[in-house]
Write a structure and sequence with these properties.
The structure holds 2 protein chains of 2 kinds. Chain A is mainly beta. Chain A contains 2 helices and 8 strands. Chain A is globular and about 65 Å long. Chain A starts with 12 loop residues before the first strand and ends with a strand. Chain B contains 3 helices and 8 strands. Chain B starts with a helix and ends with a strand. Chain B is α+β, with helices and mostly antiparallel strands. In chain B, a hairpin with a 2-residue loop joins strand 2 and strand 3. Classes of the chains: A mainly beta, B alpha+beta. At the A-B interface, strand 3 of A face strand 5 of B.
């Protein structure tokens, strides 16, 4: 057993792409979202609670999973507003903002333990970018924004081999 | 040194109409263990700056945004018993020089006075925050 240390800059890296292969950790052309302050992977099964007359506590059954990725980041101009010349990855070309506005489906991965080493774990899926709310203040000095990926479907755990 | 130079230039400009006051760019302003502003009354001496880098943001990919706090002190001594009639205006003019530094998060200036023997020394402290 060991905790996953994220202090060397290679773990908890979010990569985006308009195809699943572009969104793989370390993929050439993948859009690595920089300046992420924190990232949360939400894998939540939906539940319904119900009560019965013969029990003093409620019961539950599961419904569908509701998954999401949420993060806070410092706004990078190119990643947020797009790199016009990028013909490889439309998410990089459009940037996070236009991809959200256009409601384009994207693929993503979160390199939980890094990448490039056998056994490295990442979580991948597809979904829609939302929750962008860039905020600036003179005390904050730079633009900050929350961001979320509303996952369409299931999250998948991948192990590098 | 640029911030100190800018402050000296602005203080000089702000005091241009107060002909009884001067600004020195001399460093160090110490002679035989005595500060020159005690000897040369009505002359503003601006000290060397001190800087501190504070980590404003740190990100998972090891990106870091630093905030630099720069502190510059200036000194002015005048006669305590017979203070110049325009000393309040002069103090304001020296404080107002803080605005010369641009592209900042904040520009602050405070003044404190200390009376010793028959003179009063005003110590100005400029605090500039930049990112």
């Amino acid at each position: 057993m060991a905790v996953i240390n994220v202090t060397n800059g290679t773990q908890a890296i979010l990569t985006l792409g308009n195809t699943s292969s572009l969104a793989e950790p370390g993929a050439a052309g993948g859009l690595v979202v920089p300046f992420v302050q924190d990232i949360t992977v939400n894998a939540t099964p939906g539940t319904v609670r119900y009560s019965t007359l013969d029990s003093t506590s409620s019961s539950a059954f599961t419904t569908v999973n509701e998954n999401g990725i949420s993060l806070n980041l410092l706004v990078d101009e190119t990643v947020f507003f797009g790199e016009a010349g990028n013909t490889t990855n439309s998410v990089a070309a459009q940037g996070l903002f236009d991809t959200s506005v256009n409601k384009d489906e994207i693929f993503f991965s979160v390199a939980v333990t890094g990448t490039g080493t056998t056994g490295d774990i990442n979580i991948s899926g597809k979904g829609f970018i939302g929750g962008l709310a860039p905020t600036a203040s003179i005390d904050g000095a730079v633009f900050l924004s929350p961001c979320e990926i509303i996952v369409n479907g299931e999250l998948t755990k991948n192990v590098e081999s | 040194m640029a911030i100190r130079d800018d402050l000296i230039t602005q203080i000089t400009t702000n005091l241009s109409s107060y002909t009884n006051f001067k600004v020195s760019s001399e460093l160090p302003f110490d002679s035989g263990g005595n500060s020159l502003y005690l000897k040369n009354k009505r002359t503003v001496y601006v000290d060397d700056l001190s800087e501190e880098q504070i980590q404003l943001y740190r990100t998972i990919d090891q990106g870091t945004v630093y905030q630099t706090e720069t502190i510059v002190e200036a000194f002015l001594t005048v006669d305590a018993k017979n203070q110049p009639t325009d000393i309040e205006d002069v103090i304001q003019a020296i404080l107002n020089a803080k605005s010369v530094v641009t592209d900042t998060q904040s520009n602050e200036a405070i003044v404190a006075s200390d009376i010793e023997d028959d003179y009063v020394t005003y110590t100005f402290e400029y605090t500039i925050l930049k990112t």
